[in-house]
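User: Please run a holo structure prediction.
Assistant: Happy to. Please share the sequence and the ligand.
User: Here you go; the ligand is adenosine-5'-diphosphate.
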Amino acid sequence: MPQKKENKNAVIELKDVCKTYFMPGGMSQSVLKNISFAVYPGEFVSIMGHSGSGKSTLMNILGCLDRPTSGVYKLAGQAVSDKTDTELARIRGKEIGFVFQNFNLLMKRSIADNVSMPLIYQGIGEKERHERAIQMLHQVQLDGYENRLPTQISGGMQQRVAIARALINHPKIIFADEPTGNLDSKTSDEIMDVFTELNKKGITIVLVTHEDDVADYAKRMIKIDDGRKVYDGLRSNYNKGSKK
Ligand code: ADP
Ligand code: MG
């Protein structure tokens, strides 16, 4: 659980991470304020907060899509600030899978092509790409769907395709930013069951949501309010009635 001192190494470690956006005309907005926490292998963590509280900004830093303005972010024990953009892209490709609210699928490509797309950048041939896509589709219970187009399946299925794509490189961590934000509650539960299964297999999951029902799937919750961490602990100990 949070900040535990064990012999296991943290997969994610933030120390006093701040993010400020600088706008033209000398304006600036401080969006993340001295955020510190660690996540250990196999954890399932939700990051909660109101709209505009800084969740996506934090997620972009965690996923190495952006860098902190100050503070230290270590991924798998390595300080991200020491890496070049090329090195970060490689770490991202190998260690991390991403799932987004709007699925981000290529609508004119087959489901198999969507799932195997990350392998193209590694120079893996077409046959192996297709085989691996089919294995991943099996993990999200979409056997037989490989030749369909994303437009021919439901939103929940599209999100499962996106999860299969996130899994293709066998990542240690999955970052999901509001993955159920476009789905009805029954479909949301199905997607959260997929994440639960992956977590049981040992994949660390960090998931942003503003929905209580979704956060209930995660054991630990980190709450952000106006860029500050205001809660970090067991979800079950959090008083949902209080605002903080
Ligand atoms: P959340 O995901 O919790 O809704 P965000 O991290 O998207 O919050 O945004 C937090 C704040 O940072 C908002 O006020 C938003 O307008 C601002 N913000 C986000 N991205 C940028 C950016 N690229 N440039 C300037 N301000 C930004
Ligand atoms: Mg957001």
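Residues 185-200 form the longest helix (16 residues).
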